Amino acid sequence: MNFITPWVLIFLPLAIVPLLINQSNQNIYPWNKMIFQDGLSKIISFLLKILSSLIICLIILAISEPYSNQKIIYKIGEGAQIGLVLDRSASMDEPFSSGDNDTVGETKSAAASRLIIDFFESRSNDMVGVITFSNSAMYVLPLTQNKDAIKAAVNATAGNALFQTNIGAGLTSSAKLFTNVNDSGSRAIILLSDGAGRIDAKTQQKIRDWFYRFQIGIYWIVLKQQGGFSIFDENFVPRDEEQLPPQIELYEYFKTFRSPFHAYEAEDPKSLALAIKDINLKEKKPIRYEEIIPGTNHSKKLLVAAFFMALLLLTLKLIEVKSFK
What we know:
Blueprint: E1 2-3, H1 17-20, H2 39-63, E2 66-67, E3 71-79, E4 81-87, H3 108-121, E5 127-133, E6 137-144, H4 147-156, H5 167-176, E7 187-193, H6 201-213, E8 217-223, H7 246-254, E9 261-266, H8 269-282, E10 285-293, H9 299-318
Parallel strand pairs: 4-5, 4-7, 7-8, 8-9
Antiparallel strand pairs: 1-2, 3-10, 5-6
Helix pairs in contact: 2-9, 3-4, 3-8, 5-6
């Protein structure tokens, strides 16, 4: 038990004052020996003193504001520890191609934020961290179960962007989300981008090793331009002696991971929603998670108890026999 204002406890000895005061009787009788000895009255009188002492004690304790410590309960549920890695390059502010039922003029970043927030709000036991990247990575939110913080972090990723896509920095930073967090049983990175950058060999090996060490799966959602080439096109041939497009290189690189990997392509908000829905179905594995039960302030309970005891004391005082007939 802890106290917000513990110095008030120095007044606790005042609780014994009622026990030290002798009861005085203002009634005058010509001969006190005519009054019979009432043992029950003496017992009741002593109990009333104890009641008075308890009232004083409760009031002092209430003013000191006692509270209990928070508790951590370990539970089993469905969910995952998820690192959300969001592309914030300038191309993400371009509008999605829209169909008949889609939101007209909605940008890629706005559609992604809206659908991702809906995704996490529909799940109860996830721990989520957020990383964004453009020319470099930005650490936005550590792994947490606080839905308000997750929503605010995702909304905060919409802002001014740069014309670069340093996807290697985003992936490196995302792996660090799990370094000081106990494994709950299911870990994944959701990488959402509309392009890719080339990653040097040394960084590739570092990312591959970290993802295997921390047992992190990858879901890559590619927001592709309508009519653009597909990363799943096995017959794609670059012109002349050009390199493969960064998206296809990154796709082939992810397939070398020993940890699970799955890729999606989305050309509009509807196909993006379907990709997120599929991830939702895949990431419903049994996990161990912590539920934090905050401490309780007991001041109000103590004041209520003191009030009812004082009311009882007043009632007993009103029905006290003042004199004998």
